[in-house]
Amino acid sequence: MDELNDRRSSGPRRGRTETVEEKADRQWAELIQELRVALTGVQILFGFLLTVVFTPRFAELSDANRTIYIVTVVLGSAATGALIGPVAFHRQVSGRRIKPQAVMWASRLTFVGLVLLLCTLTSALFLILRVATHDSVAPAIVAGVLAWYLLCWFVLPAWARKRHTEETPHPSDDNDPQ
Known about the structure:
mainly alpha
């Protein structure tokens, strides 16, 4: 407890003052909230993709469109696995006093899941637009939407992180996986 009080009283105060365990608990709670949003989207998309193969129109798809469909389903399955992975990871290591490490690995799995979700959404949109537009404008529309996803999901957060991160990070921010 003295170590915590010393750390809280030393130097200029910036942001939170929390122990490693408190920080891991907070980060875990934040990560779970983020996963709820991502998982809802990936589960709805993946569920829809699984039903497509059973529709009468599926037989009319060209070989190229069937390949795109298969790739999309595999990507959706991989995204689902990566986004559910943090829950399974936490369940297996719970009580072992390694929450900071669990948060780090869960954060990495979530990032991989988001990249796979990006690929799934792009692939699904490409397939739908190829069928709906007979491939005339699908590549251009998909490229525009992909650029939008990249801007919203990666470029803007990277810009904000760089712009709003101070030169000297607070000691409690070391190894922050988020």
